[in-house]
Fold this protein.
Amino acid sequence: MRFRVWMPQATYQRAGFFGDPVPFPHGYDAVGVIEAAHLEAAYRAGQNLDGPCWNPERPTRSLSVGDVLTTEDGAWRVAIAGFTALGDSADPITVAD
């Protein structure tokens, strides 16, 4: 499964971590794609544990709370424990390359 990775724009990072969630998709930038079997595997692959960076084409930090993973089936925000589904497939979420 192909997961597009979204991270909060710099101006939103502090507010999203310490306050209300960052508005998605307007407060986010798409930073890369992870191929994984399921959400948990995508999160694990985005942890920079097995090499210098999970996305060598655009080096970035590890996935963390507040980041969003999308597929054609929906969008999920990384939570303190697990993931929070964002809307449903009818919501206008851009996942194209």
About this structure: The two ends are 14 Å apart (CA to CA). The chain is about 15% helix and 30% strand.
